Amino acid sequence: MRAEEMNTSDFDRTTNFGLGRKSAIATRAARGIKGAIAIVLASAGLLLMLAAGVMGSSRDAPSVPAQPASRTFVTAYGNTTRQVEYGLTPESVGVTSEGGYIALGLTDSPDGFLKNWLLKLSPSGRPQWQREVGCASGAPGDYGLGVSAQQTSDGGYILGGGILGCGGVYIQRALVEKLDAQGQVVWAFAYSAGSNGSTINQIRQTADGGYIAVGSVSGTDGHLGALILKLDGAGTVQWQRELDPTGSTGAYFNAVRQTSDGGYVATGEFYVVDQSYPYPNSVLVASFDPSGNVRWQKGFNNVDGRGSPSGYEHAFSGIQTSDGGYLVAGNWSSAPPGPFPQEDTAGALLIKLDSSGNIVWQKAYNGGVYCYFNGYNTTCTIITALPYSVHPTADGGYVLAGLGQLELLDSVPQVPWLAKVDSGGNLLWQYFYYDLSMAGRTISQYFASSTPTNDGGFMALGFTEKNDPTSIGELYVVKTDSAGLVADCGQLHGATPLHAIDPSLATFDTSIPVDATVTAGSNVRIRARTTSVLSRREIARCSRKAKRPGTGAAESGRRNPAAANRP
């Protein structure tokens, strides 16, 4: 996202206010981050290349009860076709009607197309079926990819994303695919919203049996507009709205939920191309009535002396809360990247809103400035976390899933992270979940998606590398109990401590123009076929033989003194 490193002699300081995720296959430009509209897939590689050297951690593994209240497991899954394994990137996970799970990923394929991989799991995490879903025809490099999936009321599944080529045009179009209960394609439509392309970032079934989808469109000026699309149960557009900024402003939606009154709330971001890069980026929340009319739209950011947005925020997830308000999850920084990171200028972000979009409370979470020697020079960074999903819990709190930063002697790798806060945003618990390579390095990176489970626990879908010389990407599935624990697992670790601060965001009316032009969908040829699955159940057994990096070891990194004394 917009993080960068700047060197000053032999002392390197980094401000990590925009932690991005990148897997062994895909860089997710389809999310709309940095104004990109295409889904781009990259070759294998780590987000963070870890330097070789002695590794240590100041975080002890948490104490785990022998028999947690609900079934728990940790498992990695790989996609194989004709005895060849293809790398996977996690996208979304959801609970199915019988208590199992549906996991969605992206994959390469033997025919050169970039495709989805849909994996159906039993409640215990055993594969029941898997499908490779993608273009039925086209040229190598074409794709028809979903980045959001949900089981529908008829037992099937709905996917939303983007399509390029596949026998059609080479401008990316928003894509919606309906599958039956066994993962076979029922129908698929592409929607040519936006003169230069469109994409869907999230889709959800609505109470009337139709669907609500959000994403972005790209215009001739190169800037993005925020897209919300209401479909009936057969994929026909009922209404369409684009919050289409003019001039040097862009916007996009990342998440949507139907509200208790039948309307919708969409969460995303907007940006203004100002004098110098990086440009300020703001949280955007918009409320719509059941017919698609905008009730209100509001932005959230720090402001400068002129009253203009000055901070750098991203909003990846948003939900309606039990009191009729809303909760937005993302990340925040009040300052651009620079050579000298300052305390409490960045962190994971939660904003609690009332039903009218007014701020009730706001909190950012970070672990202060941490310094380490990377083998060449001393590097300092602000320790943060990044929530990609948020869900309410039965006790009125919220569970977050995404990535955190592990403090080691020679690096700060990103690792999968779960956390829970109470109704006021106070942090109750947090854990890391990761596997180790044969060399003792972390190979698990983030949770892309999560869901509450029927037994009161949580399921998270993330990315890990295969623990062999190929380092190929696999889906990393962690099922916890209600306290975030997994039974007797070496993959469960204590998280880097975080503290809460007030990011002091201001609220302002965005007044982005709204376009109600409807774009009809067109049929596209999408095909599903069965592949094989590799399930590394040795992880699921959670052996205590798993090597923990530096458990109890002295920390050689240096903390900013002010942060070190913080509770």
Helix content: under 10%
Overall shape: it is globular
**pLDDT < 50 runs, ≥5 residues:** 1-68, 543-567
What count of helical segments does DSSP give? 2
> Quick check: average pLDDT?
82
Structural class by helix and strand composition: mainly beta
Number of strands: 41
User: What is the C-alpha radius of gyration, as a whole number of Å?
Assistant: 22 Å
Descriptive overview:
With 567 residues, the chain is mainly beta. The chain has one domain (5-231, 241-512, 523-564). It is 1% helix and 50% strand. It is built from two helices and 41 strands. Strands 1, 2, 23, 24, 25, 26, 27, 28, 29, 30, 34, 35 and 41 form a 13-stranded mixed β-sheet that branches. Strands 5, 6, 31, 32, 33 and 40 form a six-stranded antiparallel β-sheet that branches. A five-stranded antiparallel β-sheet has the order 7-8-9-10-39, with no helix packed on it. β17 and β18 form a beta hairpin. The radius of gyration is 22 Å and the shape is globular. The two termini are 30 Å apart. Residues 1-68 and 543-567 have low confidence and may be disordered.
Short description:
With 567 residues, this protein is mainly β.
SSE blueprint:
Blueprint (H helix, E strand, L loop, with lengths): L4 E4 L2 E4 L11 E2 L12 E2 L31 E9 L2 E3 L1 E8 L5 E7 L7 E7 L5 E9 L7 E9 L5 E8 L8 E7 L5 E7 L6 E8 L5 E8 L5 E8 L5 E7 L5 E10 L5 E9 L8 E8 L5 E8 L10 E9 L5 E8 L12 E8 L5 E15 L4 E15 L5 E8 L8 E8 L5 E7 L10 E9 L5 E8 L7 E8 L11 E3 L4 E3 L4 E4 L4 E2 L5 E3 L2 E5 L1 E5 H4 L17 E2 L1 H4 L3
Parallel strand pairs: 2-27
Antiparallel strand pairs: 1-2, 3-4, 5-6, 5-33, 5-40, 7-8, 8-9, 9-10, 10-39, 11-12, 12-13, 13-14, 14-38, 15-16, 16-17, 17-18, 18-37, 19-20, 20-21, 21-22, 22-36, 23-24, 24-25, 25-26, 26-27, 26-35, 26-41, 27-28, 28-29, 29-30, 30-34, 31-32, 32-33
